[in-house]
Design goal:
Length: 116
């Protein structure tokens, strides 16, 4: 299913929340889960903020933050996968989605920079 990017980042955050609900939180993965929630929900928050930016430079900055958060989310998903083998397929799907979102955000940055 294809989404407009605004909806896509929102659905991604919701899917991460649903994943985290399934994780058996323990001493090893507690920080990983907390960091995953922060980075994954920050992607959408910064994207939404970018859409209300006051200039192209501000827009690029917010999109760049979203891109960095997408990369960080991939990292936390990879680590979470090492702590819970029951969610491997779901984690892999979300990791791929984070990667795709990051690539889209990179393309947006590149396209907007061309107009500066």
């Amino acid at each position: 299913m294809k989404y407009a990017l605004e909806e896509r980042v929102e659905v991604f955050s919701e899917n991460i929340i649903e994943l985290v609900k399934k994780v058996n939180i323990n001493y090893i993965n507690k920080n990983i889960v907390e960091q995953l929630l922060r980075s994954s929900t920050s992607i959408g928050a910064n994207y939404f903020e970018a859409n209300g930016s006051s200039s192209k430079r501000d827009f690029i900055n917010k999109i760049a933050i979203s891109k960095k958060e997408a990369i960080e989310t991939q990292y936390w998903l990879r680590l979470l996968n090492k702590t819970d083998n029951n969610l491997t397929k779901e984690i892999a799907r979300l990791w791929d989605e984070a990667k795709q979102i990051g690539m889209i955000l990179s393309k947006i940055i590149s396209n907007v920079r061309k107009t500066l």
